[in-house]
Design a protein that fits this description.
alpha+beta; six-stranded antiparallel beta sheet; 744 residues; twelve-stranded antiparallel beta sheet; single chain; Beta-Lactamase; 46% helix; elongated
Length: 744
């Protein structure tokens, strides 16, 4: 070994070592402490490279290893050194003594313990960092190939430095453990309070997703519910907060994304709403797939050139963007754009602050910032921020069976881990990571009373991230609370559904009782009317026979006979409605309409209301109870007449049309008027028994109710569209009779 030629140099080195060792005690951040120890090793040894590898069994420390290479500036080039992955680290761990090259090269090679071919011509010193009778870490320094060996006191310096460093690392670790425990207890208390203090599933799940991200320092959290029958996962809540290095963010292909390509071409803000015209149908389909209701894309421009853009997404908002919201987005984009122009990555705080401001001022849920090189076909995402809640709506869905890891978590109820670097990923799994970016994914089951009710997915943008046992245990506890929240929500939903069903049952019972009484009354009334009506019909028939045809009174007698016959039919149908018993027969819908118009058409036209009838030729037949379709048309036409007279306009008209739809599977009858119309609330109640828009004493409120009962019994459908002051349209659809039925 080459000794120090200057005692003053040696003294200065040890004095600097003492000061560095004392400064370690004031640092409690492990990452920062390890960096300082590595920098001190480089400085004290005048080495080209320094390594600190944690080999302690504590898994939280094994991920803190660091390799530093002298860069000629105060800030060296740092790279992680995971799991003590260095041959000399392993050699020190095995020998439990310092190792020096080239002095120990022959002994290490003879032991054939490790391959040292890459280090055979590099001077190196590696020393153990001992604590509590064991090796906590290994500290080493290296010089370039062919360089002079280290001076003889460097090993002593490193040994003493490792002693200072081991104590500092142990103290920092204890401090971190105390902070972690405090944080864990705080998160558990907060999440427990969130679960117990609210029955609002959205707020509870969002809180738990946020707590999980804090607990694991993750970048993305998704909570999904699992349907065991369909094997589908439906996303309920999502919380994201991620910043990617400029060169590692997820890529967006502008050739495949129409809206982004249009933005680059137009260089103007590009708002898209899901209700816009079919000209943007590809964009709408993409929005529907991702449950997006509106998207605003704003260019990031510097000196007239686009350097990137911002994507702002709303999941629930039904209205298009306001001009003020677009203006806010443009103003913030102008402030954000210069941050992407330099070579250095904008600070995490600046990016998140800008993203938060963008979402709050534009009324959106998510913000994503992309960088773009002019002329390039791809843009790279550098930041994502936002929350999404789909608890009250249908969230994005995926099939569990398409992702084997998720299937194992669901079935076996154990924690799963996926990495974007795994070569065995299937297309569905790879597509997920393409969207999230390079990442590691931790998947936890939501288990309640032994059954899986959902999943939690946590993403870290570092694909080499290790989720240690302490973190997964805490996340599992939080997942259990999320499962409780889901179950509570299900119980509340089931209770509410039971209450709604009970109210509906009570309402049906009341209506049934009223209709039963009405049926009994109808039977009595029909019986009382039928007796004198029989006499009237008999006398009318005699008058028709006795009065000569050329006598004007003959036509009057025939009119009495027709009216009496119609009255008898009404009485018979009243009895039918009271008992709802009769046999289905093949019916011609057009003929039923014509027969109805024969009875009431004259009275309609006498009130100066025009009848416009369009009945399709060769209309398919339907199965119906005789006379009941006529009752439907009569009620609807009379309602149309009353609506016109209620409005009081002289130009009233009623249009009646029939046609075949759905390739002859259905017959559709439309009755339209230009009467008074109804409000949306009146339309909603129109089919309720005893509800009427007519003046008191002018209607029973049973007409439309009876129409629906008849249509429902015939497996048909009846709908009302109405606008106050403009009129009403009623559409009735009935299934056509099968071929076998038509021949009967």
């Amino acid at each position: 070994m080459k000794p120090y030629t200057d005692s003053a140099q040696r003294q200065a080195a040890f004095s600097r070592l003492y000061n560095l060792g004392q400064s370690f005690g004031a640092v409690f951040d492990l990452q920062e402490l390890i960096r300082r120890i590595v920098d001190a090793a480089l400085s004290l040894s005048d080495a080209d490279e320094a390594v600190l590898a944690i080999i302690d069994p504590d898994p939280t420390l094994r991920n803190l290893g660091l390799r530093a290479v002298r860069s000629g500036s105060p800030t060296h080039d740092y790279t992680p050194l995971a799991n003590g992955d260095h041959p000399l680290v392993a050699a020190v761990q095995k020998r439990n003594t310092p190792v020096e090259l080239p002095a120990d090269l022959a002994a290490l090679t003879a032991a054939n313990a490790h391959s040292l071919s890459d280090l055979s011509d590099r001077p190196a010193i590696f020393v153990p960092m001992r604590r509590n009778e064991g090796i906590l870490a290994v500290l080493g320094v290296l010089r370039p190939p062919g360089a002079d060996p280290f001076p003889e006191h460097v090993q002593e310096l490193l040994t003493r430095l490792s002693s200072y460093g081991a104590i500092a690392i142990e103290n920092a670790r204890l401090y971190k453990q105390a902070l972690d425990r405090t944080m864990e207890l705080s998160l558990l208390v907060e999440s427990s309070n969130a679960v117990s203090s609210s029955l609002d599933l959205s707020s509870v799940l969002n809180a738990i997703a946020r707590y999980m991200m804090r607990a694991l320092d993750a970048h993305w959290s998704i909570i999904s519910v699992w349907d065991p029958e369909t094997h589908e996962l439906r996303r309920l809540a999502e919380h994201r907060q991620a910043v990617w290095p400029m060169e590692k963010g997820p890529l967006l292909n502008l050739r495949e994304e129409a809206c982004y390509r249009m933005l680059v071409e137009s260089e103007q803000p590009f708002p898209v709403h899901y209700t816009r015209s079919t000209a943007e149908e590809p964009v709408r389909r993409c929005m529907i797939k991702h449950n997006q209701r509106r998207v605003l894309i704003v260019p990031l421009q510097v000196k007239g050139h686009i350097v990137g853009f911002v994507e702002l997404v709303s999941l629930h908002h039904e209205e298009p963007f306001l001009p003020s919201q677009i203006g806010h987005g443009m103003r913030l984009a102008l402030e954000l754009a210069p941050l992407l122009q330099g070579s250095a990555m904008p600070s995490r705080g600046d990016l998140f602050s800008a993203a938060r401001m963008l979402t709050s001022t534009t009324g959106t849920n998510f913000a994503s910032v992309y960088s773009w090189e002019p002329g390039s076909d791809t843009a790279r995402r550098i930041v994502s921020y936002g929350v999404g809640l789909w608890a009250e709506q249908a969230g994005p869905q995926s099939v569990v069976m398409d992702q084997p890891t998720l299937a194992v978590v669901v079935r076996e109820q154990r924690i799963g881990l996926m990495r974007s670097t795994d070569p065995n990923l299937n297309p569905e799994e790879a597509a997920l990571f393409d969207d999230v970016g390079p990442s590691a994914q931790l998947v936890l089951p939501l288990v309640f009373k032994g059954r899986t009710v959902g999943l939690v997915q946590l993403f870290d943008i570092n694909p080499e991230r290790e989720f240690v046992s302490r973190e997964t245990a805490l996340a599992h506890t939080l997942a259990n609370q999320a499962a409780i929240a889901l179950e509570n929500a299900h119980l509340v939903r089931d209770l509410q559904r039971s209450l709604d069903e009970q109210k509906a049952m009570q309402s049906r019972l009341v209506h049934a009782a009223r209709l039963s009484a009405l049926g009994e009354l109808s039977t009595v009334v029909a019986h009382q009317i039928n007796n004198p009506l029989t006499t009237v019909l008999g006398d009318a028939e005699m008058l028709v026979q006795d009065i000569p045809p050329d006598n004007p009174a003959h036509e009057s007698a025939k009119a009495i006979l027709r009216a009496g016959t119609r009255a008898k039919q009404v009485v018979e149908r009243l009895l039918t409605m009271a008992h709802m018993e009769n046999e289905m027969r093949v019916q011609d819908v057009n003929r039923t309409i014509e027969e109805t118009l024969q009875l009431i058409g004259t009275s309609i036209t006498q009130q100066h209301i025009a009848l416009d009838v369009h009945l399709a030729d060769n209309l398919p037949l339907v199965l119906a109870i005789p006379g009941q379709l006529e009752d439907v048309w009569m009620n609807l036409i009379i309602n149309a007449r009353d609506g016109i007279t209620q409005r009081g306009n002289d130009g009233g008209h009623i249009r009646i049309a029939s046609r075949s739809v759905e390739d002859g599977k259905l017959v559709e009858v439309t009755i339209t008027d230009n009467g008074a119309g109804m409000t949306a609330e009146q339309v909603r109640q129109a089919f309720d028994p005893f509800f009427t828009t007519k003046p008191r004493g002018k209607g029973t409120g049973l007409g439309l109710y009876i129409c629906r009962q008849i249509v429902d019994e015939h497996d048909g459908n009846i709908q009302i569209e109405s606008t106050p002051g403009e009129g009403t349209t009623v559409v009735v659809t009935l299934p056509t009779a099968a071929e076998g039925d038509r021949s009967t």
